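Exam revision sheet. Question 4 asks you to relate a sequence to its structure. Input first:
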Amino acid sequence: MNNIRKIFRALIGISDTPERTALAFAIGTFIGFSPLIGLHTILGIAVALLFRLNRVAVLVGVWTNVPWITVPFYGFATWFGVQLMGLPQGVELPTVGIRQ
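Answer key, structure tokens:
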């Protein structure tokens, strides 16, 4: 159990500067937008190891932009925004996929 904690702390512990962590996230985001679906994670880890960047920051950037995450994320963000702000008077969201 102690070894697992050490490994977890080594992965999560960020000893980089905020600028370097932001760079790692930005590179991960860039990789996440690439058309090489299925290779995002492998590319992210390879780039992180090659440039000695924080692997967690790179992978978070990669995983926030893969297609199977973005559709539910934007759907939730839209729903949450409507719940938080409400819709203007007289405006309705279109029903998608519901047959009457």
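Marking note for examiners. The helical segments are 2-12, 18-32, 40-51, 55-63, 67-85.
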